[in-house]
C-alpha cells in the first residue's frame, strides 16, 4: 500500500494510538483502584492510590529502559504491536491482583510511548513531529478520567484493536527506521554527551512537570472544563513544535513561555486567561524532547524516555509541595522563567556543538 511508505501517515496513526493508550490506561487503572472492583484471584483490599502510583511509576519510569533497548536493537514495530495488544486486551487483568494489573498496564504504556516517540523522532528532523505525537495524550487522559466506566473503556479498547489492524494494513516496518538509527549511531559513536545542556533540559522538563501539576482551579471543574483544558494542553504542544521549526527555539521560548509565566502568575484564577496560559506553557513540550535528541543523538529513544521520567518526578514533587503549602499563582513567575532560561542556555550549547542554531 503506497500510503504505508509515507512517514506522515505513520505519525498520524501513532498519534491516534497515543490518545487511545492514555485513555485506556487511566480508565482501567481508575476502575481497578475502585474498592468495589472484583478480581477473580485476589481476595483482600488495597488502597486504590497505590495502584495509580504503581501504574504511573511504571508508565514513566520504564521509558528510559525501553528507550535503551530500542536504541540497541534498532526496532520499534514489534514494541508498537506488543504495547497496543497489552492495552487493548487488558480485560485479562480481571484474573490477577490489582498491583499486577497496574504493573502490566504501566509496562504497555511505557513501551508504547517510546516506540511511538521513535516514529515521531525519525519521521523527520523537526520538532513538529514530536508535537503531533505528544499532543493527543492529554486529551486521552481527560477522556479516560471522565469516562472510566466499563461501557466507555470497551469503546477505547475496540478502537485500539482497529488501530492495530490499520498498522497491519499499512504494513508498519522498520526498514527506514533501521537505516536512520544505524546512521545516527555510526555518525555519533563515541561522541561525548554535553552534560550541561543534558541536565539543563532535564531540569526544564522537571519544571514543566512541576508547574503543570501545580494549578488548583477555583472555578468550574466539570467534564466540559476538564476536556476543554486538555484540548488547550494538546493545542499548546501541537503549535509548540511548529513554532520552534518556523522561528527557532529561542524565539519560540521567549514569545511563548515568558508571557505564560505572567499570565498564569497574575491571571490564572480567570478561566479565559488560564486557558491561554496553559496553551503557552505547554508549547515547550516538543521543543525539549527535540533538543534532547540533539544532545544524545546516538540514543534518541533513551533521551525521549528519560525526559518522560523527569516529567513524572516533577509532577510528584508538585503534589508533595501542594500538600504542605497553599498554592499561590505567583509561584509560576520564577518557576517558568527558570525553565525558559534552561531551554535557551541549552540551545546555545547545542548550537556551539553543532555549529548551527536549531530551527
Any key phrases for this structure?
single chain; mainly alpha; 15 helices
User: What's the helix count?
Assistant: 15
- Mind summarizing the main beta sheet? none
Order of SSEs, N→C? HHHHHHHHHHHHHHH
End-to-end C-alpha gap: 33 Å
Question: How many distinct beta strands?
Answer: 0
Q: How much beta, percentage-wise? A: under 5%
Which shape, going by the Cα principal axes? globular
* Structural class by helix and strand composition: mainly alpha
Mean pLDDT: 81
- Give the % helix: over 70%
**Rounded to an integer, what's the Rg over CA atoms?**
20 Å
Low-confidence stretches: 1-5
SSE map:
Blueprint: H1 7-33, H2 48-61, H3 63-73, H4 77-88, H5 98-123, H6 127-146, H7 150-169, H8 175-187, H9 195-212, H10 223-247, H11 249-267, H12 271-281, H13 284-295, H14 300-324, H15 332-354
Helix pairs in contact: 1-2, 1-5, 1-6, 1-7, 2-5, 2-14, 3-5, 3-14, 4-5, 4-7, 5-6, 5-14, 6-10, 6-13, 9-13, 9-14, 9-15, 10-11, 10-12, 10-13, 11-12, 11-15, 13-14, 13-15
Notes on the structure:
The structure is a single chain. The chain is an all-alpha fold and 359 residues long. It is 77% helix and 0% strand. The protein has 15 helices and no strands. The chain has helices at 7-33, 48-61, 63-73, 77-88, 98-123, 127-146, 150-169, 175-187, 195-212, 223-247, 249-267, 271-281, 284-295, 300-324, 332-354. Helix 1 (7-33) runs antiparallel to helix 5, helix 4 (77-88) packs antiparallel against helix 7 and helix 11 packs antiparallel against helix 12 (271-281). The longest helix is centred in the first third of the chain and has 27 residues, at 7-33. The chain is globular, with a radius of gyration of 20 Å. It starts with 6 loop residues before the first helix and ends in a 5-residue tail after the last helix.
Amino acid at each position: 500500500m503506497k500510503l504505508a511508505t509515507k512517514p506522515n501517515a505513520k505519525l498520524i496513526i501513532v498519534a491516534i494510538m497515543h490518545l487511545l493508550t492514555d485513555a485506556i490506561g487511566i480508565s482501567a487503572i481508575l476502575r481497578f483502584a475502585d474498592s468495589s472492583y472484583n478480581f477473580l484471584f485476589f481476595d483482600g483490599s488495597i488502597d486504590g492510590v497505590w495502584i495509580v502510583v504503581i501504574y504511573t511509576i511504571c508508565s514513566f519510569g520504564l521509558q528510559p529502559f525501553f528507550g535503551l533497548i530500542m536504541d540497541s536493537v534498532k526496532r520499534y514495530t514489534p514494541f508498537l504491536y506488543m504495547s497496543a495488544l497489552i492495552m487493548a486486551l487488558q480485560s485479562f487483568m480481571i484474573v490477577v491482583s490489582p498491583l499486577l494489573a497496574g504493573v502490566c498496564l504501566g509496562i504497555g504504556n511505557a513501551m508504547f510511548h517510546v516506540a511511538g516517540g521513535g516514529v515521531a523522532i525519525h519521521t523527520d528532523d523537526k520538532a513538529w513531529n514530536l508535537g503531533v505525537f505528544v499532543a493527543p495524550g492529554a486529551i486521552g487522559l481527560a477522556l479516560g478520567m471522565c469516562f472510566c466506566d466499563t461501557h466507555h473503556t470497551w469503546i477505547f479498547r475496540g478502537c485500539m484493536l482497529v488501530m492495530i489492524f490499520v498498522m497491519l494494513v499499512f504494513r508498519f516496518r522498520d526498514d527506514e527506521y533501521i537505516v536512520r538509527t544505524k546512521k545516527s549511531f555510526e555518525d555519533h559513536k563515541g561522541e561525548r554527551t554535553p552534560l550541561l545542556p543534558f541536565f539543563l533540559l532535564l531540569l526544564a522538563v522537571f519544571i514543566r512537570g512541576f508547574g503543570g501539576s501545580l494549578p488548583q482551579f477555583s472555578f468550574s471543574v466539570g467534564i466540559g472544563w476538564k476536556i476543554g483544558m486538555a484540548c488547550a494542553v494538546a493545542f499548546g504542544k501541537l503549535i509548540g513544535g511548529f513554532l520552534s521549526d518556523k522561528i527557532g527555539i529561542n524565539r519560540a521560548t521567549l514569545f511563548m513561555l515568558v508571557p505564560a509565566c505572567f499570565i498564569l502568575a497574575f491571571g490564572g484564577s480567570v478561566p479565559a486567561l488560564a486557558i491561554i496560559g496553559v496553551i503557552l506553557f505547554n508549547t515547550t513540550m516538543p521543543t525539549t524532547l527535540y533538543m534532547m535528541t540533539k544532545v544524545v543523538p546516538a540514543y534518541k529513544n533513551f533521551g525521549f524516555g528519560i525526559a518522560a521520567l523527569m516529567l513524572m518526578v516533577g509532577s510528584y514533587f508538585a503534589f508533595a509541595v501542594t500538600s504542605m503549602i497553599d498554592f499561590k499563582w505567583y509561584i509560576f513567575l520564577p518557576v517558568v522563567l527558570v525553565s525558559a532560561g534552561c531551554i535557551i542556555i541549552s540551545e546555545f550549547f547545542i548550537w556551539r556543538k553543532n555549529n548551527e542554531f536549531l530551527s
